[in-house]
Amino acid sequence: MLNQQSPLLVTGGAGFIGSHFVLDWFAAVDTPLVNLDKLTYAGNLRNLEPLAGRAGYTFVRGDIRDRALVDSLLRQHRPRAIVHLAAESHVDRSLVGPGEFLDTNVHGTFVLLEAARGYWQEMPAEDREQFRFLHVSTDEVYGSLKPGDAPFEETFAFRPNSPYAASKAASDMLVRAWHKSYGLPTVVTNCSNNYGPMQFPEKLLPLVLDRAIHGQPLPIYGDGMQVRDWLYVGDHAAALRVALERGKPGETYNIGGWNEQANLHTVTMLCALLDEMLPDSPHRPHARLMTSVADRPGHDRRYAINATKAERELGWRPRETFETGLRKTVRWYLDNQDWVEEVTSGAYRQWMETNYAGR
Ligand code: NAD
Ligand code: DAU
Fold first, then answer.
1. 221 bridge partner residues
2. For residue range 147-170, what is the model confidence (pLDDT) as tens digits?
3. Is 108 in the pocket of ligand 1 (CB under 6 A)?
4. Is 171 in the pocket of ligand 1 (CB under 6 A)?
């Protein structure tokens, strides 16, 4: 019989959001959890060091596309839910090599859904009601907003513009179909841009921080007036926890920060924080390092989330303001330069060359 002590099976729990989710889970709930992660360039077991030796925590290195592995984990651990975060997540990489995005985000989600369906269909009826498949997705599925447009609601049509966004939209649709066709109790969350500690420095905030600390140019795509709705990653982890507990099967919840910022403004804020926290840096004022570079092809102009449904039905609202969240984030990167150095060696340099050399 499934109960509240039955484990979760988390995919992608060694990535940025996944590791925050796993750490938050043990801090807030502390029931068993199995973390299945392939450890691509974006997965990092250092993020989970606080859990070393922790009772109830199991790490499995493996691929969500490996059906035999997923089946055996379901048989062995009998989880009460699957929390699916594993994905290729960087838009610029999807422009350079979309194939891996389709393989992992679409085919990987399909494999997981089929394994979950097999497992779920064999359960007794009362367990079938309890089980959840929580699919973690993005606001990018909705496409791009114009300045005066209303923020994304759950009912909006999908208009993905990048290979990454299209692969996530496809995976959301598969999840929808597995609920409608087979009754699998799925919950989907579509979240805006996350920031915070332990984010891989290919994404805007950690990339800018790393480069500013070393006095290197800060690449601003196009005019820098693209708007993102930033959410502190700890708030996202909490939202996923409550979506798992209170989300209704078949429903989608938009998760966002109520925090729209133009990229230029975000980078200026980061630079000001570095000026304050590194008073002796020879690179002050850091804002002078900002450099306009060629825009991202198909660059979405604006994302904004209407998170009213999550507040009303899940009782969730973000806790951090942009100021408090950014301050924590900058502090963490300054205090964890060894983490950054470790992940920016080797293959990272090759990526920087691929993405930025020709801009
Ligand atoms: P990330 O790139 O930091 O981490 C992804 C993790 O998935 C890594 O640990 C990686 O090793 C693992 N992984 C990749 N392919 C795998 C496979 N085939 N099998 C098993 N594990 C695999 O990503 P993130 O930023 O933490 O995003 C997590 C999820 O949240 C993604 O589904 C993403 O689409 C979604 N999301 C991200 C954001 C954001 O701002 N970062 C916002 C909304 C939604
Ligand atoms: O909206 C949610 C999405 O947010 C997630 O689904 C994705 O996984 C996540 O990567 C993020 O996508 P973005 O493309 O918005 O994030 P990124 O950090 O790559 O870029 C943020 C903004 O900054 C975007 O407008 C592009 C711009 N940018 C980015 C980089 C890397 C720059 O101007 N310069 C850069 O060097």
1. 293
2. 999 999 999 999 999 999 999 999
3. yes
4. no
Q: How far is the CA of 185 from the centre of ligand 1 (A)?
A: 22
Ligand 2 lined by 303 (C-beta under 6 Å): yes
3-state secondary structure of 343: helix
Give the domain ranges of the chain. 8-196+230-259+299-321
Q: Give the tens place of pLDDT for each residue, 169-217.
A: 999 999 999 999 999 999 999 999 999 999 999 999 999 999 999 999 9
List Cα–Cα distances, 325 to 95, 235, 332, in angstroms: 29, 10, 11
User: 8-196+230-259+299-321 in CATH: which number?
Assistant: 3.40.50.720
Q: How far is the CA of 284 from the centre of ligand 1 (A)?
A: 34
Half-sphere exposure (Cβ direction) of 158: Cα atoms closer than 13 Å: 16
Taking residue 195's Cβ as centre, other Cβ atoms within 10 Å add up to 25
Those residues whose C-beta lies under 8 Å from the C-beta of residue 196, and which sit 6 or more positions away, are 16, 20, 232, 233, 234, 325, 328, 329, 332
Q: Collapse the DSSP code of 194 into the 3-class scheme (helix H, G, I; strand E, B; otherwise coil) and give the result.
A: strand
CA-nearest residue for atom 3, ligand 2, is 193
Q: Catalytic residue, from 24, 37, 63, 140: name it.
A: 140
Nearest ligand to residue 296 Cα: 2
Tell me whether residue 140 is one of the annotated catalytic residues: yes
**Side-chain half-sphere CA neighbours of 65 within 13 A:** 11
